[in-house]
Amino acid sequence: MLLSRRNLLRTSLLAGLSAEVLEALQHAHEAAQAGGGKLQYLDAQAAAEIEALAAQVIPSGDGPGAKEAGVIYFIDRALATFDQDQRELYRTGLAAARPTGSIASIEHTEFFEALRKHVVMGFLASPAWGGNRDKVGWKLIGFDDAGAFQPPFGYYDTPGNME
Amino acid sequence: MSRAPFKPSQQVDFVVIGSGAAGGVMAKELATAGFSVVVLEQGPYLREPDFKHDEFGVVYQSAMVNNYKQQPNTARKSESEKAKLMPAVGYGRQVGGGSVHFTANYWRFHESDFHERSLFGAVPGATLEDWPIRYSDLEPYYTKAEYDLGISGVGGSNPFDGPRSKPYPLPPMRIKSSGVLFERAAKKLGLHPFPAPMAILSQPYQGRGACVNCGFCESFGCEMRAKSSTLATVIPMAEKTGNCEIRAQAYVRKIEIDRRGRVTGAVYFDHAKREIFQRAKAVIVCANGAETPRLLLLSQSSRFPRGLANSSGLVGRNLMVDTWAFVYGQFEHPLNEYKGIQVTRVLHDYYQADPKRGFYGGAGIDGRFDYYPISFALEALPPDTPKWGTGFKKTLAECFTRTMTMEAHCSCLPVHTNSISLDPEVKDAWGLPATRVTYDSHPDDVKTTHFARDRMLELMDAAGAQKTWSLPSFDVLPSVHLMGTCRMGNDPDKSVVNAENRTHDVPNLFLVDGSSLVTCGRQQPTATIQALAYRAAERIGKMARSGEV
Lengths: 163, 549
What we know:
The complex is a heterodimer of chains A (about 160) and B (about 550). With about 160 residues, chain A is an all-alpha fold. Chain A has helices spanning about 1-10, 20-35, 45-55, 65-70, 70-80, 85-95, 110-125, 135-140. In chain B, strands 1, 2, 6, 7, 8, 9 and 19 form a 7-stranded mixed beta sheet that branches. Chain B has a 6-stranded antiparallel beta sheet with strand order 5-12-13-14-11-17, with helices on one face. Chain B has a 4-stranded mixed beta sheet with strand order 4-3-16-15, with helices on one face. Chain B is globular, with a radius of gyration of 22 Å.
């Protein structure tokens, strides 16, 4: 049950929502995605700045990174809906990062932690939440979302390797 | 007798508060015995189509657990401190409770767990006691639970288990790479690994289909109904009788008593926060080890100024929580552990407390993988991984499919001052006092987690891991195993319920859930909670029929 405990820690940082609200949100996301990646909350400049920082957390090259995954649309959605309480953190954080534009310059800040978390989530959450475009995040780590599998699952449970 | 649904003004035989591991069993057993039952559940009635493989939506947005924005907790280490806002307790909050999203580990407690105080002796600073019942008293009910719900495993494969009257109803789940490596390592070290007993179907059973290895067990509801939650098993059986109504989004704030000191029913908030009083001849609280004592404390009255059924002063005390250690190993070849159930092999060689270790405690250890893409990236990477950049991306790409973990489920001593109480200031979204946890680990529990971590590092090495790392020790809160807070016993001064789960103070009030546990075994309390529920239901039914309730 360890994961459940970890979940509790996570959710303390996020607005918890009822299943019904989640459902509605999800539909909104899917609809927005179908519309072709329009920003809901961020203006173009803030979005560009965030995207540039996000691309330093998970860079492009050796496969798609945060930019190609469309992480910025996840973050926009977060700030527009379930993480509205982080808008001020983003505003001040972006201002602090602006002089250099470098992620290294903000590495030990609260904004970095929040941004990094959002980038990872946007990279690896279901595409329905706005990021992980074409499942590029899942492809990078080797996660297959088929939803049902036949054994063997890996090398060590393959007959012949099991001893 | 009228049929469900019932009117609140109608006096039903039983109100059951909570529909989880215990409440679901109580509902089915009493309804099939012919009693009228209303189950009041805080959370919504989710169905299989509501269960999605959406890590962000389910895990990171509290779709299936209590929500701290609406139900805040506070916590502190000692009674002299002011508690601070923080997540402290977690529980499944929908019909079926935690049995819906649990990992589905289904160990029985050992024979020794019921009389460890006699076996080991007193532990300074702890309130370790023997149970008023023994393993042999519960054995028939463990078996009943295993057959009623559908448990997969190999009876007799764990040499440290107590005697069983029957094998498991279903063969074990198929082994995964983590299980193969765990078993290989354990055997190399001369230990006794065995197939994990799981509340998941390895084959079709009672109209439900077998597991399809999707991998989304822990933290998720099973859309295939292959996980043997009470939602998928006993709750439909209860409803089918026509004697049982499951009333979801019914958040109980008080159990009422009359002038004779008998409970008369429960007041709850419905989905629109309207207060409704459901009348009943008897009340059974199955709300979990945090919510059950909280509700009793909320139900204070002139007759019970310290809280309902709390003449002992022990309601909420002796809180035991999940106490654990965690080790990671990275291997040469892909394991793809995200496929299939989380746990396939376990060992109990270090389970028994051994005075030679110099402290009380023991652990059951399993080979597992209970991460999903986001949680893995945020929380499971080796500690030397860069936080961003090419190095971060490279580790992410290489690690996910090649990592497995081991978890040690450790003993947790009952301590008088570790408790659930009502916060004097913080309120929930319904205006009720928030749950306040006072908790500080007993020193022996900390030693046990270190001991268990070291054993797992040996196992990981023996398994041939290329690289190992472990989680740093940190506070055990928030906890999702919540036990001991209304402990069972024969002495009304030293316990809250008797060996029948009846409160010593109120003849028609019963408590059946993790709060009854006198000791916590080595965590994984669900099988024991459900065995207790089957046993209590049988006794309560008999008492009700003979007019003793």
